[in-house]
Amino acid sequence: MPTQPEQEAYNELYYYTLSHVDPSFIHQYIVDAYAAQHADENTKPIKVAFALIGLYLHIEKHYSGKHIQEAHMRLAKKKKQWPVFDLPAHRGNIGVSDVLRTKPGPERDRAINEWSASVWEAWSESHAKVADLVQYNLYSHPIFSIGRLK
């Protein structure tokens, strides 16, 4: 469960990314990083799965936030029961407050990517499970299998 200062930092970063003019939609990266970093035993499996899928597509496959959002929409239509992931004790060396302390603009945008990578690495025990989930549920869709959304 995030602390009040973390939640406030997330809210501020949330508004920053929503107002960002970059068409790659970096907002999706912070939504997924924050969800994966703050998941607990009460978090719904779909939220954790989508956060990890988003991080996988961003960090491993270099998808834009817009394409991750499209992937999430396709996945939501396809699968009804999502796997439960083991929660790692450590969730990364970078947090939302660290990102928010960086200068707005390219420096902060790089920090968002570094945060995403840090959170994704913290879930390393789940990487194969996430990759299999994506392969089975997403890449079997014709628009993704030809690489059009990369």
Secondary structure elements and pairings:
Elements: H1 4-18, H2 27-38, H3 45-60, H4 65-78, H5 96-100, H6 106-122, H7 127-137, H8 142-145
Helix pairs in contact: 1-2, 2-3, 2-6, 3-4, 3-6, 3-7
Please tell me about this protein's structure.
The protein has one domain (4-145). The termini are far apart. Helix 1 (4-18) runs antiparallel to helix 2 (27-38). It is 63% helix and 0% strand. With 150 residues, it is mainly alpha-helical. 35% of the residues are buried.
Features:
150 residues; mainly alpha; globular; disordered C terminus
Work out the count of structural domains: 1
**Number of beta strands:** 0
Largest sheet: none
Query: How much helical structure, as a percent, in the residues?
Result: 55-70%
Radius of gyration: 15 Å
Low-confidence sequence ranges: 145-150
Mean pLDDT: 90
What is the structure about, briefly put?
This protein is mostly helical and 150 residues long. The protein is built from 8 helices and no strands.
